[in-house]
Amino acid sequence: MFGTMFWDLGSKKTTQRDLNNAMGSMYAAVLFLSIQNASAVQPVVDVERTVFYRERAAGMYSALPYAFAQILVEIPYIFSQTIVYSVIVYAMIGFDWTVAKFCWYVFFQFCSLLYMTYYGMMTVAITPNANIAAIIAASFYGIFNLFSGFIIPRPRIPVWWRWYYWGNPLAWTIYGMVASQFGDFDDVLTSEETVKGYLDRYYGYKHSFLGPVAGVHVGLILFFGFIFAYCIRAFNFQKR
Predict the structure, then answer these.
(1) pTM summary value
(2) Structure confidence by residue, pLDDT tens digits, 59-81
(3) What is the DSSP string of the chain?
């Protein structure tokens, strides 16, 4: 569906509208798939946590091995999901077929799906049940969307709100995807501005900043995973 909706937009770099359309494909995919992953994992973790309470009470295993197992078991199937999605959609949208750009795309897509899955798990760990976890998680989805840097570019966000852009996980993913795909192109737009010059001026995206962006993605995965593990160990919502 995503591939057919955004067919061949990635190969068009003639006007500012072309770039915005290609960015829209990344923005929509990151937002939709990430929220879908976070929402889908919540009822699963909630049910398994009930079993964990029983097993911990019986002395079968402690909290941290359970939490780390939950964290590690998500990685293989999310990686498979990322590869299947990226190969199909990357080709249909028509992004530049180079090893570096494709690997960057897969990396940022994988990290976004993984940290948002851990985000969904974390909201379950800090709440009594999946219903409350869904309410808490959903309360941030709109904020993530608003401060993603696509609806309102970072340079145009009021200074007193710009801190939330840097604290928004999805904003980092969109930054990485757009900068890795288009941030090094010197093609001249119809506005007599280069592609990378337009992205730098209007969105604040720099190709040279990809290293720190990748580091932040690793940090987000570790952060949400650690909070999940700590809360599973520290909180007990079981009622007798």
Answers:
(1) 0.91
(2) 777 888 888 988 999 999 899 99
(3) -HHHHTTTGGG--SSHHHHHHHHHHHHHHHHHHHHHHHHHHHHHHHHHHHHHHHHHHTTS--HHHHHHHHHHHHHHHHHHHHHHHHHHHHHHHT----HHHHHHHHHHHHHHHHHHHHHHHHHHHTSSSHHHHHHHHHHHHHHHHHTSSSSS-GGGS-GGGHHHHHT-HHHHHHHHHHHHHHTT--PBPTTS-BHHHHIIIII---GGGHHHHHHHHHHHHHHHHHHHHHHHHH------
Q: Which residues of the chain have pLDDT under 50?
A: none
Output the pLDDT for position 239: 67
